[in-house]
Amino acid sequence: MRAAAGPASAAALFPDRAIEEESMATSTRRAARFVRPEGEKQSAAQFGSFRAADEKAAGTYAENPIVRPMILSHGTLGVIDLAESKKFYTEFLGLDCVRHQERGMNVRVGGYWGVVCLEIGEGVQATKIYHHWGLDVSTPEEVDAAYEAALKYQDKYGIRRINKPQQMHNDGDYAFKLQDRDGNWWEIQYIVEPMKYDKRFARGDVIPT
């Protein structure tokens, strides 16, 4: 007699979910390795935190918004050629990339939120420098190392412009910006204050609105 089949695994029943869970686990492991110079480790949960209402200062959210989003999930940017851009994103910027369709690619690191890259060919419009994507590193030395690498590999990855590292934001942060082959700007930065963005929401508006 043939034995009754056991319960199917979640991976077998939901292959896409299994792939997503493994991808998330990879990002979680990478985020967990982020350590501040003073030894304070920032957890993956802090990178992709869901902020409860009581953790946000009054005035930073509406009690009854028209749209009730669960999370800010993604942004989009245009590229000329996904294959070429993927090399730069993975090999130079250290991002996780997956081609989910012929002209689309998901890009992220450190959490659920990410960028959807859309291949639109030579019609891509270059962005202004204040429209940039920020990547945080652990030390000022890593900023300098990334800057030197950008100069070294500028031709290989088609980097258009590279600005010198400097103090930023009037609070000791240290960063430089580069413009990639598609005209998109990236900021490689060291932030002095851990979890600065979460703390801003906890503190609330400093300018009346």
Word description of this protein:
- Helix content is 30%, strand content 22%.
- The chain is an alpha+beta fold.
- The strands form two sheets. Strands 5, 6, 7, 8 and 9 form a five-stranded mixed beta sheet that branches.
- It has seven helices and nine strands, in the order αααβαββββααββββα.
- β2 (96-101) and β3 (104-108) form a beta hairpin.
- It has a single domain (14-42, 72-200), classed as 2,3-Dihydroxybiphenyl 1,2-Dioxygenase, domain 1, CATH 3.10.180.10.
Secondary-structure map:
Blueprint: H1 10-13, H2 15-32, H3 44-47, E1 74-79, H4 82-92, E2 96-101, E3 104-108, E4 114-119, E5 132-136, H5 140-152, H6 154-157, E6 161-162, E7 166-168, E8 173-179, E9 185-190, H7 196-203
Parallel strand pairs: 1-4, 5-9
Antiparallel strand pairs: 2-3, 3-4, 6-8, 7-8, 8-9
Given helix and strand content, the structural type is: alpha+beta
Q: If you average the pLDDT, what whole number results?
A: 81
CA(first)-CA(last) distance: 75 Å
Radius of gyration: 20 Å
Total helical segments: 7
Shape call: globular
Q: Tell me, what is the CATH class?
A: Alpha Beta
Q: How many beta-strand segments?
A: 9
User: Helix proportion of residues, in percent?
Assistant: 25-40%
Q: Major β-sheet, in short?
A: 5 strands, mixed
The CATH architecture name reads: Roll
CATH topology: 2,3-Dihydroxybiphenyl 1,2-Dioxygenase, domain 1
Fraction of residues in β-strands: 15-25%
Mind telling me the CATH superfamily name? 2,3-Dihydroxybiphenyl 1,2-Dioxygenase, domain 1
